[in-house]
Specification:
This protein is of the alpha/beta class and about 425 residues long. The protein is built from 14 helices and 16 strands. The strands form four sheets. It has a seven-stranded parallel sheet, sandwiched between helices. Strand 3, helix 6 and strand 4 form a beta-alpha-beta unit. Helix 2 packs antiparallel against helix 5, helix 2 packs across helix 7 and helix 6 packs parallel to helix 7. The longest helix has 20 residues.
Length: about 425
C-alpha cells in the first residue's frame, strides 16, 4: 500500500488540497506557451492511446452493467471513438483560444490622474465532483489548466479505471511542459467521505463545480461550505409558434429529443401552439412513436391526436412538467399563445435551455427577452447548448445559476477580475 492509501479520506484530501494550493500559485504565473504545450501534448497522447483507453473503459462499463445501471448511465460512461476524438479536438480548440489571464480592460483615467481598470485572474483551486462521464476528466483538466487554475478532480467509483488512466496522461503532459504535476490531481479513493471533505475545505478550494445527478447536487447544496457553480436539472423546452415553418419545426424538434436522450440539453417538454397541431405536431408524433418515444400529453393534445387516430398516449401529470427524463419520454402540451408558453417555461423549467421555432422576428425577440434561462434559442435544437458547440473548446459544466457564471462554463467562467490602479506618484487629498 502507498502512504496515501494508508491515510483516511480526510487526511488524503487535506494533503491533496495543500498541494493544489501551492500548484495554483505557479499556474497563475504560467505562460500561455507552456499551457498550450501541455494541452497539445495531451491531445496527442489521447489519440495515441485511444485503443488502450477504450479497453480500460470497458472494465468500468462491464462493472456498471453488472451493477444494473440503466442505458442512459452506460451511455454517459462509455468512451467511443467519437468521444475520444472529441476530447482531443476540444483540447486543441482550447489551445487555440486566447488566454484570458492577465487581460486588462476598462482602463480609464480619473480626475486624480490615476488610471483604474480590471485584470482577469484565475479563481485559484477548483474542485470538480462528477459521476459517470470520464470525458469530464479531460474537459475539466484542460479548462482549468488554460485558465491558470489548479484543479482537484473527484470522479465517481463507476469510472475509476478510466479516470485513473486519463489522469496518468494528464500528469505526463504537465511534466512535459514543465508545469507542476499537482496542478491537476485525480482523487483515487472512492470513499464518499472524500466528497464531504472537498466541499468543506474552503482553506484550499475556492469553488466547487458538481457535475452529476440530482442527489449529488442536493447533497452538496445542503452540506457545502465552498461556493459552487452548478445546475440541478435540465428540463429543456421547445415551443412551436403559430408562425413556425413546419419543415423547420419537425427537423429541429426531432433532433432536440432523439439525437441523444441522456444529455442535460435534450428537450423534455414540447409546447405547441394550438393552430399548428396538424401541420407540425402530427408529423412529429409519428416520428417519435416510430423511434419508441413515450408521449405524455395534456388533455387538449390527447383529444386532438386521438381524433386523428393516434393511440398509445399517456396522460401527463403535474409531475411530468417538472421531470428531466433523460430517456425516450417526452411531455407535450398545447398552448393558446406565446404568453402561455413563456409562463409554462418560467414556472416549470430549470433555467437551462429553451427554444422557439418561429419565422416572426418580434416573437423571437420577445422569447429571448422573457424566457429566464441560461441559453435561449431561435430555430435551433436545444442540443446545441454545449461548450464545444459554443466555441468554448469544452465546458466544465452548464450553470443555471445567475451569479458569476451562467450557461456553458468555459475559460472566462473559471476566472475572476481584480481592480488595478496605475499611478505616477498620486496621493489622495
Amino acid at each position: 500500500m502507498t502512504a496515501q492509501q494508508n491515510m483516511s479520506p480526510i487526511e488524503q484530501m487535506t494533503q491533496i488540497g495543500q498541494k493544489a494550493r501551492v500548484a495554483s500559485r505557479e499556474m497563475a504565473r504560467a505562460s500561455t506557451a507552456l499551457k498550450n504545450q501541455a494541452l497539445l501534448h495531451l491531445a496527442d497522447l489521447i489519440r495515441k492511446n485511444a485503443e488502450s483507453l477504450k479497453k480500460i473503459n470497458q472494465q468500468d462499463v462491464a462493472r456498471a452493467k453488472t451493477n444494473g445501471q440503466d442505458a442512459a448511465f452506460i451511455d454517459r460512461l462509455t468512451l467511443t471513438d467519437k468521444t475520444i476524438a472529441t476530447m482531443a479536438e476540444g483540447l486543441e480548440q482550447i489551445a487555440k483560444l486566447a488566454d484570458p489571464i492577465g487581460e486588462m480592460t476598462n482602463i480609464r483615467t480619473m480626475p486624480s490622474g490615476i488610471q483604474v481598470g480590471q485584470m482577469r485572474v484565475p479563481l485559484g483551486v477548483i474542485g470538480i465532483i462528477y459521476e459517470s462521464r470520464p470525458n469530464v476528466t479531460i474537459d475539466a483538466a484542460a479548462l482549468c489548466l488554460k485558465s491558470g487554475n489548479a484543479t482537484i478532480l473527484r470522479g465517481g467509483s463507476e469510472a475509476i479505471d478510466s479516470n485513473t488512466a486519463l489522469a496518468k496522461l494528464i500528469q505526463e503532459s504537465l511534466q512535459a511542459a514543465c508545469l507542476p504535476s499537482d496542478a491537476v490531481q485525480v482523487v483515487q479513493t472512492t470513499d464518499r467521505a472524500a466528497v464531504g471533505a472537498m466541499i468543506t475545505m474552503n482553506q484550499y478550494i475556492d469553488v466547487i463545480v458538481p457535475r452529476g445527478g440530482k442527489s449529488l447536487i442536493e447533497r452538496l447544496m445542503a452540506e457545502a461550505r465552498v461556493p459552487m457553480i452548478k445546475h440541478l436539472d435540465g428540463i429543456c423546452h421547445t415551443y412551436i409558434d403559430v408562425q413556425a415553418d413546419p419543415a423547420k419545426a419537425i427537423k429541429v424538434c426531432d433532433n432536440a429529443k432523439t439525437q441523444r436522450y441522456a444529455p442535460c440539453n435534450t428537450m423534455e417538454t414540447l409546447l405547441v401552439h394550438q393552430s399548428v397541431i396538424d401541420t407540425c405536431l402530427m408529423p412529429l408524433v409519428k416520428i417519435y412513436q416510430d423511434k419508441g418515444v413515450e408521449l405524455r400529453v395534456c388533455k387538449t393534445t390527447k383529444a386532438a391526436l386521438e381524433k386523428q387516430g393516434i393511440q398509445n398516449l399517456v396522460d401527463a401529470t403535474e409531475e411530468d412538467w417538472l421531470t428531466e427524463y433523460l430517456a425516450p419520454i417526452l411531455s407535450i402540451k398545447t398552448v393558446q399563445d406565446m404568453t402561455e408558453a413563456i409562463t409554462h417555461i418560467n414556472e416549470y423549467g430549470s433555467h437551462h435551455t429553451d427554444a422557439i421555432i418561429t419565422e416572426d422576428y418580434s416573437a423571437g425577440m420577445r422569447f429571448l427577452r422573457e424566457v429566464d434561462s441560461a441559453s435561449v434559442m431561435i430555430n435551433a435544437s436545444t442540443r446545441f447548448a454545449d461548450g464545444f458547440e459554443y466555441g468554448l473548446g469544452a465546458e466544465i459544466g452548464i450553470s443555471n445559476d445567475k451569479l458569476h457564471a451562467r450557461g456553458p462554463v468555459g475559460l472566462e467562467g473559471l476566472t475572476s477580475q481584480k481592480y488595478i490602479v496605475l499611478g505616477s506618484g498620486q496621493i489622495r487629498i
